[in-house]
Amino acid sequence: MPVLRQAVLKTLLWMRQTPLRRPALILLVKVHNASYHLIALFSSHTGKHPKHDIQKYHEFFLKHISSSDHVLDVGSGTGYVAWQLADKAKQVVGIEIAEAKVIKAQHLYQHPNLSFIVGDATTHTFTQAFDVIVLSNTLEHIDDRVTLLKTLSNLAPKILIRVPMLTRDWITVHKKQLGLPYLLDETHTIEYEYDSFRREMAAANLSIQSLHVNFGEIYAVVTTKKQPTAVTPQPHVLAHPQHNSS
C-alpha cells in the first residue's frame, strides 16, 4: 500500500503541472459534492438523515413558539419539522408545493393539531391568520424571495428562518471563486452570507430580532414590525461550520 500511495501521489503531482489539472479539479469537486449526499444516504437504512439528530434544528423552532400559536410551515417537505411543532403549538399547517411530499407527510406524520396542504404559499388563499411562520431550508429554493417574505408578513407577525450559509467552510467559497459547482443542492438559488441575509430582510421590511449561526446555517427570528430601539445583531457562531442541506 505505501508503494501504491506513493505512485498515486506522484501521478497527481505530475497532473498538476499539465493541462489535465483543470479537468482533474472539476472531477474532484464533483466527487466532493456527491459525497455529502451519499454519506447521508448510506448512514441510515431507514432513510432518516443523520443531521436531524446531530443538529437538532427543530429545537430552535420549538423555542420560539408557544402553546397558543397557530403556525404555518412553508415548504414543509415530508413533514418532520411540522410534526415536531404540533406537539407544542395549538395548530400547525404545513404547505408544500410538491404533492408527492405532502402525501408522504400525511402518511408519516399524523397529529390532531397538524394538517398538510398542497400549494404555493405565494398564491394560496389562506382562510386564517397565523401567529408564527416557519421557513426551514425553504428560502434558498426561491427565486423572488423578497416578494415571498412580503406576502408571508401579511399572514403572521413573526417568521422563524433557517437557511444555509455560503461561508460554511473555506472550500465552498473556493469552489465559487474557481467557477465550479458549490451549492449544496442544485435547486438552491442562493446560499447566504450574513450581509446578504441582512440586506434581504431589510428589502422585505422585516426586522431581525435575533440571529445565530450553527453548523453553517443562519437561524433568525424576524418580525414584521420595526422596533425603534432594535439593533441588528451580529452573528454568534455556536458550532464549527459543516456541510448542510435541506
List keywords for this structure.
246 residues, alpha/beta, Rossmann fold, 2 domains, 7-stranded mixed sheet
> What's the CATH superfamily of the largest domain, by name?
Vaccinia Virus protein VP39
Quantity of strands, as a count: 7
Write down the Rg. 21 Å
CATH class of the largest domain: Alpha Beta
Helix coverage percent of residues? 25-40%
Low-confidence parts lasting 5 or more residues at pLDDT below 50?
226-234, 236-246
Cross-sheet strand order for the largest sheet: 3-2-1-4-5-7-6
H/E order of the elements? HHHHEHEHEEHEHHEE
CATH architecture of the largest domain: 3-Layer(aba) Sandwich
Compute the separation of the termini in Å: 39 Å
SS field, number of helical segments: 9
Range of strand content: 15-25%
Number of discrete domains: 2
CATH topology descriptor of the largest domain? Rossmann fold
Mean pLDDT: 88
Largest sheet: 7 strands, mixed
Shape, principal axes of CA atoms: elongated
